[in-house]
Amino acid sequence: MSSPSPALAYRLEAARAVVHDASRLAMSMRPPPGGPVATQKSAQDWLTETDGAVEAFIASRMKTLFPEDGFQGEEGGVARSGQLRWVVDPIDGTSNYARGRSRWCVSLGLLDGDEPVAGVIEAPALNEVYTALRGAGAFLNGKPIHASPVKDPASAMIEMGWSNRVPKPVFMEKIDAIMKLGAMPRSGGSGALALADVACGRLDGYIEIVINLWDVAAALPLLAEAGARVSPFLRDGGLTGAATILAANPHIAETLSQAVNIPLA
Hints:
- This protein has 2 domains: 6-144, Fructose-1,6-Bisphosphatase, Chain A, domain 1 (2-Layer Sandwich), CATH 3.30.540; 153-260, D-Maltodextrin-Binding Protein, domain 2.
- Helices cover 35% and strands 28% of the residues.
- It is built from 9 helices and 15 strands.
- Helix 1 (6-28) packs antiparallel against helix 2 (49-65) and helix 5 (191-200) packs parallel to helix 7.
- The protein is globular, with a radius of gyration of 17 Å.
Protein backbone atom coordinates (compact mmCIF):
# COMPACT_ATOMS: atom_id res chain seq x y z
CA MET A 1 0.00 0.00 0.00
CA SER A 2 1.48 3.36 -1.05
CA SER A 3 1.82 6.20 1.43
CA PRO A 4 -1.00 8.72 1.14
CA SER A 5 -0.21 12.27 0.11
CA PRO A 6 -0.05 14.63 3.14
CA ALA A 7 -2.04 17.20 1.15
CA LEU A 8 -4.79 14.67 0.49
CA ALA A 9 -4.74 13.43 4.08
CA TYR A 10 -5.20 17.00 5.27
CA ARG A 11 -8.09 17.50 2.88
CA LEU A 12 -9.78 14.34 4.12
CA GLU A 13 -9.61 15.50 7.72
CA ALA A 14 -11.00 18.90 6.75
CA ALA A 15 -13.76 17.28 4.71
CA ARG A 16 -14.72 15.05 7.61
CA ALA A 17 -15.20 18.09 9.85
CA VAL A 18 -17.19 19.97 7.20
CA VAL A 19 -19.43 16.99 6.48
CA HIS A 20 -20.03 16.51 10.20
CA ASP A 21 -21.20 20.11 10.56
CA ALA A 22 -23.31 19.77 7.41
CA SER A 23 -24.88 16.62 8.85
CA ARG A 24 -25.83 18.49 12.01
CA LEU A 25 -27.51 21.12 9.82
CA ALA A 26 -29.40 18.40 7.97
CA MET A 27 -30.53 16.81 11.23
CA SER A 28 -31.80 20.16 12.49
CA MET A 29 -33.95 20.52 9.36
CA ARG A 30 -35.07 16.88 9.22
CA PRO A 31 -38.83 16.43 8.71
CA PRO A 32 -40.82 14.34 11.17
CA PRO A 33 -42.01 10.87 10.12
CA GLY A 34 -44.91 11.00 7.71
CA GLY A 35 -45.71 11.98 4.15
CA PRO A 36 -42.89 13.58 2.14
CA VAL A 37 -41.98 17.15 3.05
CA ALA A 38 -40.46 17.99 -0.33
CA THR A 39 -41.10 19.01 -3.90
CA GLN A 40 -41.14 16.37 -6.62
CA LYS A 41 -38.71 16.91 -9.52
CA SER A 42 -40.07 13.84 -11.31
CA ALA A 43 -41.62 10.51 -10.32
CA GLN A 44 -40.05 9.42 -7.02
CA ASP A 45 -37.33 12.08 -7.41
CA TRP A 46 -37.54 14.49 -4.51
CA LEU A 47 -35.96 17.81 -3.53
CA THR A 48 -36.06 19.29 -0.04
CA GLU A 49 -35.08 22.68 1.32
CA THR A 50 -32.27 20.88 3.11
CA ASP A 51 -30.61 19.77 -0.14
CA GLY A 52 -29.93 23.36 -1.14
CA ALA A 53 -28.97 24.52 2.35
CA VAL A 54 -26.48 21.69 2.94
CA GLU A 55 -24.89 22.05 -0.49
CA ALA A 56 -24.49 25.81 -0.04
CA PHE A 57 -22.96 25.26 3.41
CA ILE A 58 -20.41 22.74 2.12
CA ALA A 59 -19.62 24.80 -0.98
CA SER A 60 -18.89 27.88 1.12
CA ARG A 61 -16.71 26.02 3.62
CA MET A 62 -14.68 24.20 0.97
CA LYS A 63 -14.14 27.42 -1.02
CA THR A 64 -12.77 29.07 2.10
CA LEU A 65 -10.54 26.12 2.99
CA PHE A 66 -9.37 25.19 -0.50
CA PRO A 67 -10.05 28.05 -2.94
CA GLU A 68 -7.85 26.43 -5.58
CA ASP A 69 -9.91 23.21 -5.66
CA GLY A 70 -12.81 22.63 -8.01
CA PHE A 71 -16.31 22.03 -6.70
CA GLN A 72 -19.36 20.24 -8.09
CA GLY A 73 -22.75 19.80 -6.43
CA GLU A 74 -25.86 17.85 -7.31
CA GLU A 75 -28.00 20.97 -7.17
CA GLY A 76 -25.56 23.63 -8.39
CA GLY A 77 -23.49 21.79 -10.99
CA VAL A 78 -19.80 22.59 -11.48
CA ALA A 79 -19.12 25.81 -9.61
CA ARG A 80 -15.31 25.76 -9.98
CA SER A 81 -12.82 23.75 -12.02
CA GLY A 82 -9.50 22.40 -10.76
CA GLN A 83 -7.19 19.40 -10.83
CA LEU A 84 -8.60 18.47 -7.42
CA ARG A 85 -12.40 18.55 -7.47
CA TRP A 86 -14.84 18.09 -4.60
CA VAL A 87 -18.14 16.43 -5.53
CA VAL A 88 -21.05 16.63 -3.09
CA ASP A 89 -24.43 15.00 -2.76
CA PRO A 90 -25.96 17.09 0.01
CA ILE A 91 -28.66 14.54 0.85
CA ASP A 92 -28.33 11.12 -0.75
CA GLY A 93 -31.54 9.24 -0.07
CA THR A 94 -33.77 12.29 -0.25
CA SER A 95 -36.93 10.20 -0.55
CA ASN A 96 -36.07 8.64 2.83
CA TYR A 97 -35.06 11.97 4.36
CA ALA A 98 -38.26 13.68 3.22
CA ARG A 99 -40.34 11.12 5.15
CA GLY A 100 -38.35 11.36 8.36
CA ARG A 101 -36.61 8.03 7.80
CA SER A 102 -33.02 7.32 8.85
CA ARG A 103 -31.36 5.88 5.73
CA TRP A 104 -29.82 8.96 4.13
CA CYS A 105 -26.42 10.59 4.18
CA VAL A 106 -24.24 13.56 3.31
CA SER A 107 -21.62 12.51 0.76
CA LEU A 108 -18.44 14.38 -0.23
CA GLY A 109 -15.84 12.88 -2.56
CA LEU A 110 -12.53 14.19 -3.91
CA LEU A 111 -11.24 13.53 -7.42
CA ASP A 112 -7.69 14.11 -8.63
CA GLY A 113 -8.36 14.60 -12.30
CA ASP A 114 -10.45 11.56 -13.13
CA GLU A 115 -9.27 9.45 -10.18
CA PRO A 116 -11.29 9.20 -6.94
CA VAL A 117 -8.83 9.72 -4.09
CA ALA A 118 -10.82 10.44 -0.92
CA GLY A 119 -14.35 10.35 0.40
CA VAL A 120 -16.51 11.03 3.44
CA ILE A 121 -20.03 9.69 3.88
CA GLU A 122 -21.90 10.54 7.08
CA ALA A 123 -25.28 9.04 7.95
CA PRO A 124 -26.07 11.08 11.07
CA ALA A 125 -29.41 9.40 11.85
CA LEU A 126 -27.52 6.08 11.89
CA ASN A 127 -24.50 7.47 13.80
CA GLU A 128 -22.15 6.26 11.07
CA VAL A 129 -19.23 7.94 9.31
CA TYR A 130 -17.37 6.29 6.44
CA THR A 131 -13.97 7.62 5.34
CA ALA A 132 -11.41 6.52 2.79
CA LEU A 133 -8.15 7.85 1.40
CA ARG A 134 -6.21 6.36 -1.48
CA GLY A 135 -3.46 4.16 -0.07
CA ALA A 136 -4.63 4.51 3.56
CA GLY A 137 -7.62 2.15 3.83
CA ALA A 138 -11.35 2.50 4.35
CA PHE A 139 -13.05 2.99 7.71
CA LEU A 140 -16.43 3.02 9.44
CA ASN A 141 -16.45 5.07 12.63
CA GLY A 142 -12.65 4.82 12.69
CA LYS A 143 -12.46 1.03 12.33
CA PRO A 144 -11.12 -0.65 9.16
CA ILE A 145 -13.67 -2.17 6.81
CA HIS A 146 -13.42 -4.81 4.10
CA ALA A 147 -15.70 -6.29 1.46
CA SER A 148 -17.71 -9.38 2.36
CA PRO A 149 -16.10 -12.85 2.28
CA VAL A 150 -19.30 -14.50 0.94
CA LYS A 151 -18.51 -16.79 -2.00
CA ASP A 152 -21.81 -18.52 -2.70
CA PRO A 153 -24.31 -16.32 -4.60
CA ALA A 154 -27.10 -18.27 -2.89
CA SER A 155 -25.89 -16.77 0.39
CA ALA A 156 -25.45 -13.27 -1.05
CA MET A 157 -27.44 -10.11 -0.47
CA ILE A 158 -27.63 -7.83 -3.50
CA GLU A 159 -29.17 -4.38 -3.64
CA MET A 160 -30.44 -2.77 -6.83
CA GLY A 161 -31.36 0.87 -7.00
CA TRP A 162 -34.50 2.00 -8.79
CA SER A 163 -34.71 4.95 -11.18
CA ASN A 164 -37.56 6.26 -13.28
CA ARG A 165 -34.99 6.70 -16.07
CA VAL A 166 -34.70 2.91 -16.42
CA PRO A 167 -37.34 1.10 -18.51
CA LYS A 168 -39.29 -1.38 -16.41
CA PRO A 169 -38.27 -4.41 -18.54
CA VAL A 170 -34.58 -3.62 -17.99
CA PHE A 171 -35.07 -3.32 -14.25
CA MET A 172 -37.05 -6.54 -14.08
CA GLU A 173 -34.47 -8.38 -16.20
CA LYS A 174 -31.66 -7.50 -13.76
CA ILE A 175 -33.74 -8.34 -10.69
CA ASP A 176 -34.68 -11.66 -12.25
CA ALA A 177 -31.00 -12.42 -12.92
CA ILE A 178 -30.15 -11.67 -9.29
CA MET A 179 -32.90 -13.95 -8.03
CA LYS A 180 -31.88 -16.77 -10.41
CA LEU A 181 -28.49 -16.74 -8.68
CA GLY A 182 -30.33 -17.42 -5.43
CA ALA A 183 -29.28 -14.06 -4.02
CA MET A 184 -31.53 -11.99 -1.79
CA PRO A 185 -32.59 -8.69 -3.45
CA ARG A 186 -32.77 -5.46 -1.48
CA SER A 187 -33.53 -1.80 -2.15
CA GLY A 188 -32.77 0.85 0.44
CA GLY A 189 -33.13 4.20 -1.32
CA SER A 190 -29.56 5.54 -1.01
CA GLY A 191 -26.95 4.71 -3.61
CA ALA A 192 -24.07 6.12 -1.57
CA LEU A 193 -24.99 4.07 1.50
CA ALA A 194 -25.56 0.94 -0.59
CA LEU A 195 -22.05 1.26 -2.02
CA ALA A 196 -20.71 1.87 1.49
CA ASP A 197 -22.52 -1.29 2.57
CA VAL A 198 -20.66 -3.22 -0.13
CA ALA A 199 -17.40 -1.76 1.14
CA CYS A 200 -18.07 -2.85 4.72
CA GLY A 201 -19.57 -6.26 3.89
CA ARG A 202 -23.20 -5.60 4.77
CA LEU A 203 -24.05 -6.16 1.13
CA ASP A 204 -22.34 -8.46 -1.34
CA GLY A 205 -23.25 -6.35 -4.34
CA TYR A 206 -25.02 -3.24 -5.58
CA ILE A 207 -26.31 -2.38 -9.05
CA GLU A 208 -27.73 0.87 -10.39
CA ILE A 209 -28.42 1.22 -14.10
CA VAL A 210 -28.50 5.02 -14.11
CA ILE A 211 -26.60 6.90 -11.41
CA ASN A 212 -24.62 10.13 -11.24
CA LEU A 213 -21.14 11.12 -10.11
CA TRP A 214 -22.34 12.90 -6.98
CA ASP A 215 -24.02 9.69 -5.81
CA VAL A 216 -20.83 7.63 -6.03
CA ALA A 217 -17.82 9.99 -5.79
CA ALA A 218 -17.27 9.48 -2.06
CA ALA A 219 -17.98 5.75 -2.22
CA LEU A 220 -15.52 4.87 -5.00
CA PRO A 221 -12.43 5.30 -2.77
CA LEU A 222 -14.19 3.28 -0.06
CA LEU A 223 -14.78 0.41 -2.44
CA ALA A 224 -11.23 0.45 -3.78
CA GLU A 225 -9.64 0.52 -0.35
CA ALA A 226 -12.00 -2.15 1.00
CA GLY A 227 -11.13 -4.61 -1.77
CA ALA A 228 -14.43 -4.58 -3.68
CA ARG A 229 -14.69 -4.94 -7.46
CA VAL A 230 -16.37 -2.16 -9.40
CA SER A 231 -17.46 -1.62 -13.00
CA PRO A 232 -15.68 1.19 -14.93
CA PHE A 233 -18.24 3.84 -13.99
CA LEU A 234 -16.03 6.84 -14.73
CA ARG A 235 -14.69 5.43 -18.00
CA ASP A 236 -18.24 4.63 -19.12
CA GLY A 237 -19.39 8.24 -18.91
CA GLY A 238 -19.81 8.82 -15.18
CA LEU A 239 -17.50 11.84 -15.13
CA THR A 240 -19.82 13.91 -17.28
CA GLY A 241 -23.22 12.23 -17.06
CA ALA A 242 -25.22 9.34 -15.73
CA ALA A 243 -23.81 5.81 -16.09
CA THR A 244 -24.24 2.27 -14.79
CA ILE A 245 -22.43 0.96 -11.72
CA LEU A 246 -21.92 -2.50 -10.33
CA ALA A 247 -19.94 -3.05 -7.12
CA ALA A 248 -19.45 -6.41 -5.45
CA ASN A 249 -17.26 -8.37 -3.10
CA PRO A 250 -14.35 -9.96 -5.02
CA HIS A 251 -15.63 -13.52 -4.58
CA ILE A 252 -18.96 -13.16 -6.37
CA ALA A 253 -18.14 -10.17 -8.59
CA GLU A 254 -17.48 -12.13 -11.79
CA THR A 255 -20.56 -14.32 -11.34
CA LEU A 256 -22.79 -11.34 -10.67
CA SER A 257 -21.26 -9.37 -13.54
CA GLN A 258 -22.00 -12.16 -16.00
CA ALA A 259 -25.52 -12.71 -14.67
CA VAL A 260 -26.59 -9.08 -15.06
CA ASN A 261 -24.39 -8.38 -18.12
CA ILE A 262 -22.51 -5.45 -16.58
CA PRO A 263 -18.73 -5.74 -17.20
CA LEU A 264 -16.26 -5.12 -14.39
CA ALA A 265 -13.19 -2.91 -14.70
